[in-house]
Design goal:
The chain is built from 26 helices and 45 strands.
Length: 963
């Protein structure tokens, strides 16, 4: 009787279960036909190779063999029926990837997903609020981490909730027929309970059985989890802001580290690979996170370079006690720590992670180190076809034979990302990208929170005046209101000038370099204002930087890196922004602007509503770029001329020389404007040539006259112009940047060639004498003094590195990436320029652009990205394919609004006196170059050939080609 009673009860339960399942299927069973919204998910633009198909099939076999048919869940580790929401998210991502990679058909996909969602819908929740931290995968019971059933559960994990919310978004996007079902599940969960003060909070059960809410997430995972919440309309602004963090130098790389460590919070602040890999393949690395990811990969390469130990660290299960470890770049004050969740060290079990190696390989497909470490694990599959092992122990060199859904799920996600043509799985418009600065006075940008700091605006290619930054008010730290600038109306259809003649297409390698350089301008674009940051870690821009951007735009379009549509949209947006910039004293654009608000700022980033002067050098840079835009894209002529006609040139061009304005604060509180001649060597000559394009008489600033020189490596290097019009000694150093920009854009006229050649020769001779690669330039670095002038000669000393305050920077000399590219473009057959290029071509992050360079003494990468460096690289590549013709092309039309206003005269704005260009492009046997209109230039010019240089064991009189 008892047996029959239980049998009847069991049959009733089975019947009820079948009815429930039928009703679920009745309402939720999806059709195999995909909606139009999912087309992008099935768009496989880079099909897997046969070898990659083998990887994918092997990873999918893990889920086939660890499937729990009663629940639709999968085991988190091989044969162990347990799983967290994070593991469930892994499975959903793997299932979606398997469908589009044709590892499973639609019927199997639907069957698996229906069962999964049916069980998930009916899960018992912790305190009827959110899913428990872990469930038995076979029974769907709430359990602890030992898989022991618990009626109440052990709490929830907000990070795990964020992971599954991201997976839900991918499912509803790629399989929209499941959208309502997923929305119902999310609505049932009280997700708002896991949010507090803009942060993510998990729940844990204390020994006294009380529930405690605990902030969850550290730099990397915190931002990733918050993005998952954001996809479903739940905001966690503090969690997504990157802060608080600091930079810790590890193996010569500045690594971002959360300041909330184990000692202060009882939670680990580990730095691992997986969070950045997930962010990259799902959301697309952008802004600071792109830079952080590149650093985390780079530091692992540096460890390999130093120790010979291949390194790919992240958290992983292991096949022995303690069974789960965090293999880290950094954790709780220790580099390369391998710890448990309780911060217990197990360095003997540090391993090369299979999933990390796969992730870096496909996120950075051109990175040689990522390929090297990937090659070690790509065949690390179990012999019984149960999936990929977790990794290889560093110490024993034996496989870590743990089989997990995390490893195999991430591999499938990564391969699907590759098959999509490296397009992130989640649309970039779905979430916002936050930015942040390091905490505790460690800053990527110029620090604006230090009273009386002497700093310069963070650009890498133009020296500026030293200024004192005032202590910011509390308003300076508030979040700025971003200004939306509408692009100018559409212009006429493109009329690209025939003056621009491309001699040959880019090579495959050059194409890769150009695309990498252009990524800077994608990663640092402000879509509302249309502006680009001068450097990636500072929300500010100068006119010099905008000139860099416009020159980069022109180069990217000419090289077919961007489409005509993108070029037009960006150009019209930039031109509109230029019309909105407040002018200093209603005359000229100021020295710096906030790229979000368009406010005038000082060189520390602090708002200065009244402005702090103007730079004639910056004006020259933007005038050169605007002139070339008119010449090569004449459809923008009217818009360009409207901008420059709004400016007054009465005080910037005075008696044939260029002058800049500065503002000083008197003790009585008055602000006084002072206008002084520009004297910076190379920069003055460049800016003067640009002003001449617009008809200004600036012969006193144009290249020419006598120059003071100093002997460096036996070569007479220019130090400064001999002049009687000023006692200023602003120029304290000689660097390559302005001379290279001049040569690329205007060519080498005889007078400039006489300056350019010794500058190159001295650097080549130093390399010949010492073996030290030398590419002297003004560059940024990510620590004090933030800007370094690696001079040829500075303050009378050769090869000294100086800060903007004139103080030496020990071991601060850099080999500039931009200078290397430019020298090679100008002197492609020169042996030394070839050496320079070979030393710098791999110094780029495919998602963020080219780094500034590397340190001479250590060879370590100088972490930092600027518009100047990436613009010069794009211009150098364009110069190469233009058969070494000057990038600035001449125009013959004098009927534009600018010249019509000049012709009228009496403008009251300081326009040129006559409607003639003061410079012209000529050609002779030494090449093509611009000269001042008044110069009587010989038709044939022979290059300077007066120095004897040792070439190998043989000394010979030679031209620059042989250095």
């Amino acid at each position: 009787m008892i047996y029959k009673h239980h049998q009847q009860k069991l049959l009733r339960w089975i019947a009820l279960f079948l009815v429930g399942t039928f009703l679920q299927l009745l309402f939720y069973i999806p059709t195999p036909v995909l909606s139009q919204n999912s087309s992008s998910c099935s768009n496989i633009t880079a099909p897997l190779t046969p070898e990659e198909q083998t990887y994918a099939r092997a990873a999918w076999q893990y889920f086939v063999k660890n499937y729990q048919p009663a629940t639709g869940f999968t085991n988190s580790t091989g044969g162990y029926p347990s799983g967290t929401l994070w593991d469930m998210g892994n499975y959903l991502m793997a299932l979606n990837a398997a469908r589009w990679l044709n590892l499973t058909d639609q019927a199997d996909f639907d069957s698996r997903l229906n069962k999964f969602l049916t069980t998930l819908s009916s899960l018992k929740l912790f305190e009827d609020t959110l899913p428990n931290k872990v469930y038995n995968a076979a029974t769907a019971q709430m359990v602890d981490y030992g898989n022991n059933p618990l009626e109440r559960g052990i709490g929830w994990s907000a990070l795990d909730v964020g992971r599954i919310l991201a997976a839900f978004d991918v499912i509803r996007t790629c399989h929209p027929q499941y959208n309502d079902w997923l929305k119902g599940i999310v609505a049932k969960w009280q997700i708002a309970r896991s949010l507090k003060d803009g942060q993510l909070f998990g729940a844990t059960v204390l020994p006294d059985n009380k529930t405690l809410l605990v902030q969850e997430g550290r730099l990397g995972y915190e931002e990733y989890g918050a993005r998952g919440y954001q996809l479903w309309g739940f905001s966690a602004p503090k969690a997504i802001s990157l802060e608080p963090f600091k930079l810790v130098e590890i193996n010569g790389v500045q690594i971002p580290v959360d300041t909330r460590d184990f000692k202060s919070t009882n939670a680990n602040n580990y730095v691992v690979s997986e969070s950045y890999i997930l962010d990259g393949i799902e959301f697309g690395l952008q802004g600071e996170l792109a830079d952080f990811a590149a650093r985390v990969l780079d530091v692992q390469k540096r460890r390999y370079d130093t120790t010979g130990q291949l390194t790919a660290v992240t958290e992983d299960n292991i096949d022995q006690a303690p069974y789960f470890l965090y293999n880290t770049v950094y954790a709780n004050g220790a580099n390369w720590a391998t710890i448990t969740d309780a911060n217990q060290p197990y360095p003997q079990f540090r391993s090369i992670s299979t999933k990390a190696a796969f992730g870096w390989r496909y996120l950075f497909p051109d990175n040689a180190y990522a390929q090297k470490v990937f090659d070690v694990v790509k065949d690390l599959r179990s012999p019984d076809d149960s999936g990929y092992y977790a990794g290889i122990y560093e110490e024993s060199k034996q496989p870590n034979k743990a089989l997990t859904g995390n490893t195999n799920g991430l591999i499938l996600e990564i391969l699907y990302y590759k098959a999509r043509g490296n397009r992130p799985l989640i649309a970039s418009t779905s979430v916002s990208v936050s930015t942040g600065n390091p905490s505790e006075n460690v800053s990527l940008a110029i620090p604006s929170n230090q009273p009386n700091s002497t700093v310069t605006i963070p650009i890498a290619n133009q020296p500026n005046s030293i200024v004192t930054v005032p202590t910011p008010t509390p308003a300076d730290t508030s979040k700025p209101t971003e200004v939306t600038v509408a692009p100018i109306p559409p212009v006429d259809s493109p009329k690209s000038s025939s003056n621009l003649k491309i001699d040959r297409p880019l090579s495959v390698i050059e194409q890769r370099y150009a695309e990498a350089a252009w990524r800077y301008f994608q990663a640092n674009y402000h879509s509302k204002s249309g502006l680009i940051d001068d450097r990636s870690d500072f929300k500010g821009v100068t006119l010099w930087g905008l000139g860099d951007y416009l020159a980069a735009l022109h180069a990217a379009r000419s090289l077919d890196i961007i489409s005509p549509k993108e070029f037009d949209q960006r150009t019209r947006h930039l031109l509109a922004a230029l019309t909105k910039l407040p002018l200093f004293a209603e005359e000229l654009p100021g020295r710096g602007y906030d790229t979000r608000t368009l406010q005038l700022i000082d060189y520390g980033g602090n708002p200065v509503p009244e402005g702090n002067g103007w730079s004639a050098l910056d004006l020259g840079r933007i005038l050169a770029a605007l002139y070339n835009l008119k010449t090569c894209h004449p459809e923008y002529t009217a818009a360009v001329d409207k901008i420059v006609l709004d400016w007054s040139y009465l005080r910037v061009v005075r008696e044939g020389i260029l002058s800049s304005a500065t503002v000083t604060k008197e003790q009585d509180g008055r602000s006084l404007t002072r206008v002084n001649p520009e004297t910076r060597l190379g920069y003055e000559e460049y800016a003067a040539r640009a002003f001449q394009l617009w008809g200004f008489n600036v012969d006193g600033s144009a290249v020419g006259g006598e120059y003071q020189t100093a002997s460096v490596e036996g070569v007479k290097v220019p130090v400064q112009r001999r002049r009687t019009d000023t006692n200023s000694k602003v120029n304290q150093y000689t660097v390559s940047n302005p001379f290279l920009l001049y040569a690329l854009e205007f060519g080498l006229d005889p007078k400039m060639r006489s300056l350019f050649e010794p500058i190159f020769q001295a650097q080549a001779e130093r390399y010949r004498r010492t073996g030290t690669l030398t590419a002297s330039a003004t560059t940024l670095i990510d620590r004090k003094p933030y800007i370094v002038h690696s001079s040829i000669i500075g303050q009378g000393d050769p090869w000294v590195a100086l800060g903007d305050d004139g103080q030496p920077v020990p071991k601060g000399r850099l080999v500039s990436t931009a200078v290397a590219f430019a020298f090679h473009a100008l002197l492609p057959e020169n042996k030394y320029s070839q050496e320079l290029l070979q030393g710098t071509t791999d110094l780029y992050n495919p998602l963020a652009g080219f780094y500034e360079g590397f340190y001479e003494t250590t060879g370590k990468t100088a972490v930092g990205f600027t518009s100047s460096t990436n613009s010069m690289i794009l211009q150098s590549l364009l110069y190469k394919v233009m058969n070494q013709q000057p990038l600035i092309r001449p125009t013959t039309t004098m009927k534009s609004p600018w010249w019509q206003e000049v012709t009228k005269g009496n403008s009251g704005r300081g326009l040129p006196n006559t409607a003639i260009q003061r410079t012209r492009l000529i050609s002779d046997s030494s090449g093509s170059y611009w000269v001042s209109g008044s110069e009587k230039t010989p038709l044939v010019h022979h290059g300077v050939n007066q120095h004897t240089i040792q070439n190998g064991a043989k000394a010979q009189n030679t031209t620059m080609r042989d250095f």
